[in-house]
Amino acid sequence: MSEEVLSQSEIDALLSAISSGEMDADELKKEEKERKVKVYDFKRALRFSKDQIRGITRIHENFARLLATFLSGQMRTYININVASVDQIPYEEFIRSVPKKTILNVFSVAPLEGRLLFEINPNIAYAMLDRVLGGAGTSLNKVDNLTEIETKIMSNIFERAMDSLREAWGSIIDIEPSLEEFEVNPQFLQLVSPNETVVVISLNTTIGEASGMINICIPHIVLEPIISKLSVHYWMQDTERKANPKDFDNISKGLKSAPVEVKAVLGESTITIEEFLNLAENDVIQLDQSIENPLKLLVNNEPKFYVQPGKSKNKMAVQILEEMSRGELEDES
């Protein structure tokens, strides 16, 4: 519990009151010993611990970065998104805080039960729409007069943006977000009961010259099956988890089956362009390789072994004599 720090003037006033008899030190001690009672509002039940709220915050900070990257590619303009706040409040309080006319998207997130609600400020939504249609990103607020084409374009943008949410939640659970409803009036939406606790993640969003908020409303029923995975303890366990031996075996098998180019170099030589142009049949080019020295075997154009030429089953072949040492490899480079 945080303690209140008194200023020097307040300390002097307190000492003066005690010395003058206006305040009794014994009464102050008695009040200190009395049990302090904290008011608890059952309508505003806190279903998530601070640790779990921090876990949700981390996930959506990642989502904000991914969403900004996705929208920047789609809109071809400057976009900045960051988490402004993460709060747990009753659903009724969230709905009352939403403007009467706004852009609302309801997503199912299988395999989790329940649905998520994305509330996008009209300034942001229309800036997106204007950019997609080739404009400068001008924001207009005409939510009452959305055409079917505008509704479809907006829905497609928000639905494709859910790939970023899927990726952000991938460290906890694999979800499949799917757009179920597109609405402009919050009074027509009833995700959960009014007193149900929801987590509201508010994202500060800037698209070009337009700015506004994107609010994500997640009911408790959605997070309940994975609530234990939202704590720092789970994240630490996940970080310290040892590598699965099967993963190592699978990687090894994949590497072993990867094709590489192997070639033996019989020798090299240097000639002038004039000599090259005058080459004729039966001419002999002298190589710099002595028949007494082993050949070099190259793997993907990197010298790796010393070999000697020969035949195997009537085919030209080489036999590996020894591996090239590290010093020899450095001399080659």
Automatic annotation (TrEMBL):
<dbReference type="InterPro" id="IPR028976">
    <property type="entry name" value="CheC-like_sf"/>
</dbReference>
<dbReference type="InterPro" id="IPR001543">
    <property type="entry name" value="FliN-like_C"/>
</dbReference>
<dbReference type="InterPro" id="IPR001689">
    <property type="entry name" value="Flag_FliM"/>
</dbReference>
<keyword id="KW-1003">Cell membrane</keyword>
<feature type="domain" description="Flagellar motor switch protein FliN-like C-terminal">
    <location>
        <begin position="255"/>
        <end position="323"/>
    </location>
</feature>
<keyword id="KW-0145">Chemotaxis</keyword>
<dbReference type="GO" id="GO:0005886">
    <property type="term" value="C:plasma membrane"/>
</dbReference>
<dbReference type="InterPro" id="IPR036429">
    <property type="entry name" value="SpoA-like_sf"/>
</dbReference>
<keyword id="KW-0282">Flagellum</keyword>
<dbReference type="Pfam" id="PF01052">
    <property type="entry name" value="FliMN_C"/>
</dbReference>
<dbReference type="GO" id="GO:0009425">
    <property type="term" value="C:bacterial-type flagellum basal body"/>
</dbReference>
<keyword id="KW-0966">Cell projection</keyword>
<dbReference type="GO" id="GO:0071978">
    <property type="term" value="P:bacterial-type flagellum-dependent swarming motility"/>
</dbReference>
<keyword id="KW-0969">Cilium</keyword>
<protein>
    <recommendedName>
        <fullName>Flagellar motor switch protein FliM</fullName>
    </recommendedName>
</protein>
<dbReference type="GO" id="GO:0050918">
    <property type="term" value="P:positive chemotaxis"/>
</dbReference>
<comment type="similarity">
    <text>Belongs to the FliM family.</text>
</comment>
<dbReference type="GO" id="GO:0003774">
    <property type="term" value="F:cytoskeletal motor activity"/>
</dbReference>
<keyword id="KW-0472">Membrane</keyword>
<keyword id="KW-0975">Bacterial flagellum</keyword>
<keyword id="KW-0283">Flagellar rotation</keyword>
<dbReference type="Pfam" id="PF02154">
    <property type="entry name" value="FliM"/>
</dbReference>
